[in-house]
Amino acid sequence: MAKLHFHYSTMNAGKSALLLQAAHNYRERGMETLLLTAAVDTRAGKGRIGSRIGIGAAAEVFAPEDDLAARVAGRLEEAQLACVFVDEAQFLMPEQVWQLARVVDDLRLPVMCYGLRVDFRGDLFPGSAALLALADEMREVRTICHCGRKATMVVRRGPDGTALREGAQVQIGGDETYVSLCRRHWREEMGDRARR
């Protein structure tokens, strides 16, 4: 039975590596997949999913205005597909999440989405909020804070190294910009000191 999956975490937890490994497993068994990534994120190159551990693969890009259900249906007219993989799923529009749900329900194709849950302010991304509401299966991909606890938040650093509290929700960056932290240390970075 096809399902809509959402694998979520903070930055640097290995989401893209997990996606690439799962897609490889399908291809190794002779099954075709469709890999999608957000057009806005070009850190690995345009139309490329890349992991910090050095692996990568070509992917089609999606933009906010794209109809993903129509794209998948068009691909199915050309060839068989076994699974659809979406990297940087936080950048999906809520309507695109509904489109992916239709791919699962109507085309009976599994869709595996990988992305961030919250931004640097602790707010849900619209695509992540829709996935949390609609996904059939959710899995947290874990990483750790510098203290050893599970990291659930991310802080964005400014040029001087201090934590930013304001700014656009989307700013593409990696280790030079973002740090994954547990909630307590994120609160401290944001100026909310723990009470003893």
How would you describe this protein?
One of its GO terms (biological process) is thymidine metabolic process. Its EC number is 2.7.1.21. Belongs to the thymidine kinase family. InterPro entries: P-loop_NTPase, Thymidine_kinase, Thymidine_kinase_CS. The chain is of the alpha/beta class. The protein contains 5 helices and 10 strands. It has helices at 15-28, 68-78, 94-107, 126-134, 183-189; strands at residues 4-9, 33-38, 48-50, 56-58, 60-62, 83-86, 111-116, 137-140, 153-156, 178-181. The strands form 3 sheets. A 6-stranded parallel sheet has the order 5-2-6-7-1-8, with helices on both faces. Strand 6, helix 3 and strand 7 (111-116) form a beta-alpha-beta unit. Helix 3 runs parallel beside helix 4 (126-134). The longest helix is centred in the first third of the chain and has 14 residues, at 15-28. 33% of the residues are buried.
End-to-end CA span: 50 Å
What fraction strand?
15-25%
Number of strands: 10
Supply the CATH class. Alpha Beta
Largest sheet: spatial strand order: 5-2-6-7-1-8
CATH topology: Rossmann fold
Helix percentage: 25-40%
Helix segment count? Answer: 5
Catalogue the unreliable spans. Answer: none
Structural class: alpha/beta
Mind telling me which CATH architecture this is? 3-Layer(aba) Sandwich
Q: Mean of the pLDDT scores?
A: 87
Q: Write the H/E string, N to C.
A: EHEEEEHEHEHEEEH
Task: Report the sheet with the most strands, covering strand number, pairing sense and barrel closure.
Answer: 6 strands, parallel
Radius of gyration: 17 Å
Number of domains: 1
> What sort of overall outline do the alpha carbons produce when their principal axes are compared?
elongated
Please name the fourth-level CATH homologous superfamily: P-loop containing nucleotide triphosphate hydrolases
